[in-house]
Automatic annotation (TrEMBL):
Span list, region Disordered: 111-152
Family recorded in the similarity comment: Belongs to the universal ribosomal protein uL4 family.
One GO cellular component term noted in the UniProt record for this chain: ribonucleoprotein complex
Keyword tags: Ribonucleoprotein, Ribosomal protein
Protein's name according to its UniProt entry: Large ribosomal subunit protein uL4m
Biological process annotations from GO: translation
GO molecular function, one term: structural constituent of ribosome
Organism of derivation: Galdieria yellowstonensis
Biological role stated in the UniProt entry: Probably binds the 23S rRNA.
InterPro entries: Ribosomal_uL4, Ribosomal_uL4-like, Ribosomal_uL4_dom_sf
Amino acid sequence: MSVLRICRRWFHPVCGKIVLPKSSTTFLSDSGEILPVSSYEPPKPSTSDAEQVPDWAGADREALVFNSFADFVPVEVAPLPGIIFNAVIRPDIVHRVVVWQAACRRRGIHNTKTRAEVSGGGRKPRPQKGTGRSRQGSIRSPLWVHGGVAHGPKPKDYSYQEAQKLVENGMRSLLTSRFMDGRLWIVRDCSLPSSDPDILHTHVKTHSWKSFAIIDARTDDFEGVSDNLADAAFFVPEAKVLPLEKMNVYDIIQQDHLVISKPALERISSKFRHLYCYY
């Protein structure tokens, strides 16, 4: 029995090497002899093994950092944590999260009047017998025009609870998908010199973006977003500005591109620090 079969559960898919647990002191060689761990030399990973590592193995990635919207040129390279930007893409989880958020956003104020709520006479509209017509007891019946509605919609709360891990995995799948599609952009500073919306309009026309969402995390502002950026995006229907605390799948998936500021990227890993797997 080979060492790889014994230690399969400790095989690291990214590094391509066997990682023995600290509690193990011996291992079984190919010839069946029991040898100490100190005498084992792991095989060197070959290029063929490295090519078989899947893209969602969880390795950290890198992305270019652009200066600003007015000066959209790369200035540095920022590391992207693999636990967030290199996870398994699960469209089913993203769909469940979108349905959950859409249900929670429903106001549920629809209302119809029953026969007890509509206005109308309290007397019997015609005698019970003798007219040859149908028997009617009130003009407020649902059978009459301007009568009440039977089993109509009433105000209702459509919100329900969803698992927190499922919501986080949906966000990870969406961020990984945006990165793999080349629609994730890192900007050093998302603030604008003025509140003129022409800066964003020019940026959209220059780069042929249909729409984009901006995630910012400023510490010198109460809302976490620059005032000039929020005022300019108000007059640009293609832009959606969100602080880091309000980042969600529903708003991001509706936009074609995603822009994350450098401060938000540095703090985004704290939202997923308790996660330990890539699926």
